[in-house]
Amino acid sequence: MNRDDVEKVGQAALASIELLAADWFPNGVREGREWCIGSREGEAGRSMKICLSGESAGVWKDFSADDTCGDFISLYAYIFRVEEAEAMKALACEP
Description:
Blueprint: H1 3-15, H2 17-24, E1 29-31, E2 34-37, E3 48-51, E4 60-62, E5 67-69, H3 72-80, H4 84-93
Antiparallel strand pairs: 1-2, 2-3, 3-4, 4-5
Helix pairs in contact: 1-4, 3-4
């Protein structure tokens, strides 16, 4: 994938960020503009937060592991434990 493809995949994922966050983390809850969960394992809690809107949409932080990043592709890679190239391909296939 080239840079334009990466940007397109990232933008498409951000357009569905709340739906994807709820699908990936059904035990999470929305608090303001963040989706809150316990960790990348998906348990209920508030140690991991994903920004759902605004300029920071897609930025996430797992406070329990002190991991953070600024894009939704890296979030997919983090929670599914795959390389970012695989995450981009998987997100490109998301409905």
